[in-house]
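[Meeting: bench + compute handoff]

Bench side (C.D.) handed over the final construct sequence. Compute side (W.E.) agreed to return the predicted structure before the next meeting so the bench team could plan truncations. Sequence as handed over:
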Amino acid sequence: MTEAHRRKKQPDLVRADLLRSAAEIAAAEGMPAVTLDAVAARAGVTRGGLQHHFRSKQALLEALFCEMRQQFAADIAAEATADPHEHGRMTRAYVRVVTREPATDGEANAMRALLAVLLTEPELRERWSDWWSQTTVAEAAATDTAKLAICRLAADGLWMSTLLDFEAISPALRSQVIRQLESDTHA
């Protein structure tokens, strides 16, 4: 009897393990390495067990994308809710979320996997773009839309350099840049 047959059935935990495993593989080896067999092996389940949750690699990637977008959206919403200043609120929330250091290796891997999915899956990239456009619709009417966009794009650069382990600036300068970006989002 395999380990999968002996353990108590916990579908939610198995599903979470499968998504975590897919994110780890994507972060460490790239999207081509995310195969159903590789994810099942890393999660310690059979391929059939994986396919009980995700019928295909595309279904697995879509679930990974949806979970990460939900978490990202929740983080943005929490930051925006805590911000007492309306003007530039969503951009400041975005800057704060993408420039904070990942709390765990798992969080860093999830963000790297999100980046990999966005780079390799045009349909999911379009859905991300649509979601973000809807999220920032109120700021689109601002008179300084370009300034807010510059802040988000600069934050993206800091985010990418962190995810890719390419820090070309000192921590002190990085903090100063983040403070400047936040300051630039105010009217």
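W.E. noted at the follow-up: The radius of gyration is 19 Å. C.D. will use this when planning the next construct.
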